[in-house]
Amino acid sequence: MLLQISHTDILRTSFVDCATGAVAFRTNTYHPQRARSGSCSSASSSSSSALQEQLSGDNNVDRVTSLEDAYGNILAEITWDGANASLIRVGDDLIKGTAELFDAAFVKIFPDATLFPTRLEYTWRMTRDDLLLLDDDEEVVGKLHQNQIQDDLKLAPAPSSKIGHDYLELNTLPEDELPEMLVCYLLLCTLRERMYSITRFVYGQPQKTDPIAKLRRGATRSIANLRNRFRRRKAPNH
User: Fold this and answer.
1) CB of 194 within 8 A of CB of 134?
2) Count of structural domains within the chain
3) In the chain, at which end, N or C, are there fewer CB atoms within 10 A of the end residue's CB?
4) What confidence score (pLDDT) does residue 50 get?
5) Cα(13)–Cα(3) distance, rounded to whole angstroms?
6) By residue range, what is the domain housing residue 115?
């Protein structure tokens, strides 16, 4: 499946199936006080109600992102506490944040890439330029294509960022696993943007140092902080 991402704000966008031209999924982000536009499917209504009960008593909740199918049924929800996903629902499963969604104890950090294993035995490989989804045989089953144009289902780099779109390619994934992989994609995209969007407003004017080395140090610190936060959330309470 090849999905065109219609808007740069991935928390408020549509995923268009390139084979049919129809919207396959949508994301919508709202504040808990506001009513949601979609309706829960019968299979997930009880878990969504449980999520809403937790939201009503949580004053730290900033916003909620929902993933909907083409008919407006809510397949998954992400509850945000600032920039952190504090609670995630996928179908009937309530997941306590990213540490549980990803296998946090086995996140691997390399100089040029970071590997995020998932509980469904896939692994996301994130770099500054790529985001890949690998199966348990390390075969690529998903890929983010950035700033592309489409011609007869073939992708090519766009001559300008003003006319290109991002495309998410997901191959051979079972239909019931797509919502969870899309939730992972949303979370990793927001993380990747924070990690690699290093500007002069953060670092000030350029110094007489190797800019690539500086970027690597900043990204490594961000990932190290993320890993430590994962491990703290993963640690059992005594």
Assistant:
1) no
2) 1
3) C
4) 47
5) 12
6) 2-234
